[in-house]
């Protein structure tokens, strides 16, 4: 052959395969191992004498998915070169139907990658085959006969499992969203060209991934280091009990592909940390924080400020949650502007500690998906300097202005001009709560309702649980001296700091909390 052909990672051929030529394409002198798999057309199947075969494929989708599988194998096993070639059309007995070749430095990764590719191709690529039998009969394997009536099945006298999906997988159809004037073909193309990194495939991440995949967002990255647990399922209803113990990132990626095979998925089974965050985020247009912990949120916040990559945050606490967009704009508020002290562990509970009803993260994940689509489509939505707070008990929503704090450490400016308050200035100690009232303070209990019921305050007080602080701040009077009280003084210290950042500069925290009153210093 005078023109050397360039072997694609995954391709279809209508003509018989020249396996020697394919092997030469993958030859690499740096490799010590070459593994090959050939799937042959055999002369029988389930007791029937087969005369020939036909293969059909959903070529456009199959080529994309096949190329993805080969790339995954290369990344996963570190092999040098790999390719898979599949026949379509009419095949004779003895023909090679599918060929996989892998070159690697060593034999072990070559074998493993080869095995991986053939298994994944069998399960993920939309290819189906029709067998022709000696008696002139024919059938789509694992499909037509499974769907046939029981009498037909009895006649063939076989039992089998239905492992392949129905053959003619329909193409994704975006007509219902494209009918919107704001979307149309142009908007759909924008979504197809977009990439979104979803950090967390749990209560928020599940609705986010479902809607973004359904909408045809071109590429979805999924970061989650956890395995599915039975206690997740009441709010993560995309998964099944049978999935428990498996890694959520790959489970979610499989669900996305089943929902919409046109969406490219990158499953990252890891926890986002300072060492990998910037690299992961760099590869996407938009980042959605669907995590349930403050360390991940603040890490993403800082990456957004450093790199200018927009991050849309959603946080849920019991029946309430909020959305905030951080764009990295120097003049717009960031998460640390709003929550200067919340990084301390244990100040705000996650779902495991605080409890949550399943639809609550469902609502906020849906809102987050909606804001993400609006952002990608260039529609008006949540601005960079505001927060949406939604209380799902009272069903009241508020759009609050998020103030850019002059002393925010994350922005890295203004620190010298406005040093952070020393903790001493925030805290004050009293022998008893009546003493505090006598000194002119209005008591504010920041514990949650359960704690307050279990241990009532020994003096008259307002009740303002941590989860309500932000929404309540505008209703408090800056002229009143508030003394915030919690069990140990830890949460009330953070609450006082937060309220001060909202303009309530005289509020203070009871040092040692209620415990401190019982145990005299
Ligand atoms: Zn800030």
Summarize the topology:
Elements: E1 10-13, H1 19-25, E2 33-40, E3 44-45, E4 48-57, H2 59-77, E5 81-87, E6 89-92, E7 96-104, H3 107-124, E8 127-133, E9 138-140, H4 144-147, H5 150-156, H6 175-178, H7 184-192, E10 195-199, H8 205-215, E11 219-223, H9 248-259, E12 264-268, H10 277-282, E13 286-289, H11 294-307, E14 311-317, E15 320-326, H12 335-338, H13 351-354, H14 359-377, E16 386-391, E17 396-401, H15 423-426, E18 427-428, H16 433-438, E19 442-445, H17 449-454, E20 462-463, H18 469-472, E21 482-485, H19 490-501, E22 508-510, H20 513-518
Parallel strand pairs: 1-5, 10-11, 10-13, 11-12, 13-14, 18-22, 19-20, 19-21, 21-22
Antiparallel strand pairs: 2-7, 3-4, 4-6, 4-8, 5-7, 8-9, 14-15, 15-16, 16-17
Helix pairs in contact: 2-3, 8-9, 8-14
The structure holds zinc ion.
Zinc ion binds at residues 333-334, 336-337, 405, 408, 410-411.
Please explain how this structure is put together.
The protein is α/β, with parallel strands linked by helices and 521 residues long. The longest helix has 19 residues, at 59-77. The chain contains 20 helices and 22 strands. Helix content is 34%, strand content 22%. It is elongated. It binds zinc ion (ZN). Residues 333-334, 336-337, 405, 408, 410-411 line the site of zinc ion.
Strand content: 15-25%
- What is the number of helical segments per DSSP (H or I, 4+ residues)? 20
The termini sit apart by 92 Å
Biggest sheet character: 8 strands, mixed
Average residue-wise pLDDT: 84
Structural class comes to: alpha/beta
According to DSSP, the number of beta strands is 22
Percentage of helical residues?
Answer: 25-40%
Oligomer: single chain
Q: Report Rg.
A: 30 Å
- The poorly predicted ranges are 142-165, 413-424
Strand arrangement, largest sheet?
12-11-10-13-14-15-16-17
């Amino acid at each position: 052959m005078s023109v050397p052909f360039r072997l694609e990672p995954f391709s279809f051929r209508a003509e018989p395969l020249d396996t020697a030529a394919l092997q030469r394409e993958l030859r690499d002198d740096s490799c010590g191992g070459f593994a090959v798999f050939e799937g042959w057309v055999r002369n029988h199947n389930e007791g029937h004498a087969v005369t020939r075969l036909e293969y059909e494929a959903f070529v456009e989708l199959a080529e994309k998915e096949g190329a993805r599988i080969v790339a995954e194998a290369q990344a996963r096993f570190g092999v040098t070169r790999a390719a898979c070639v599949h026949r379509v059309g009419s095949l004779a007995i003895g023909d090679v139907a599918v060929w996989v070749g892998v070159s690697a430095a060593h034999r072990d990764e070559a074998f493993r990658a080869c095995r991986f590719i053939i298994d994944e191709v069998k399960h993920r690529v939309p290819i189906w085959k029709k067998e022709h039998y000696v008696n002139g009969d024919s059938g789509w394997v694992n499909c037509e006969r499974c769907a046939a009536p029981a009498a037909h099945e009895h006649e063939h006298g076989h039992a089998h499992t239905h492992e392949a999906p129905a053959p003619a997988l329909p193409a994704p159809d975006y007509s219902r969203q494209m009918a919107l004037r704001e979307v149309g073909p142009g908007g759909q193309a924008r979504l197809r060209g977009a990439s979104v990194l979803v950090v967390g495939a749990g209560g928020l991440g599940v609705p986010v991934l479902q809607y973004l995949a359904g909408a045809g967002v071109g590429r979805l990255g999924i970061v989650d280091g956890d395995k599915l647990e039975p206690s997740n399922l009441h709010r993560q209803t995309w998964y099944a009990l049978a999935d428990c113990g498996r890694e959520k990132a790959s489970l979610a990626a499989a669900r996305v592909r089943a929902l919409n095979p046109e969406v490219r998925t990158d499953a990252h089974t890891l926890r986002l940390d300072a060492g990998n965050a910037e690299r992961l985020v760099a590869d996407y247009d938009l980042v959605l924080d669907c995590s349930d912990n403050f360390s991940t949120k603040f890490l993403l916040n800082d990456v957004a400020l450093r790199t200018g990559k927009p991050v849309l945050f959603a946080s849920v606490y019991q029946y309430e949650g909020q959305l905030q967009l951080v764009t990295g704009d120097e003049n717009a508020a960031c998460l640390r502007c709003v929550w200067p002290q919340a990084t301390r562990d244990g100040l705000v509970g996650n779902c495991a500690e605080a409890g949550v009803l399943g639809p609550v993260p469902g609502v906020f994940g849906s809102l987050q998906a909606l804001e993400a689509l609006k952002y990608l489509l260039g529609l008006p939505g949540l601005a960079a300097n505001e927060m949406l707070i939604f209380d799902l008990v009272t069903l009241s929503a508020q759009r609050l202005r998020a103030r850019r704090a002059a002393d925010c450490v994350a922005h890295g400016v203004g620190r010298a001009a406005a040093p952070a308050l020393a903790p001493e200035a925030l805290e004050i100690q009293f022998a008893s709560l009546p003493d505090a009232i006598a000194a002119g303070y209005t008591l504010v209990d920041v514990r949650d309702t359960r704690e307050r019921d279990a241990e009532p305050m020994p003096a008259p007080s307002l009740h303002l649980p941590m989860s309500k602080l932000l929404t309540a701040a505008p209703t408090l009077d800056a002229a009143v001296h508030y003394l915030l009280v919690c069990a140990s003084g830890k949460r009330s210290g953070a609450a006082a700091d937060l309220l001060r950042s909202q303009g309530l500069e005289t509020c203070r925290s009871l040092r040692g909390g209620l415990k401190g009153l019982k145990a005299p210093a």
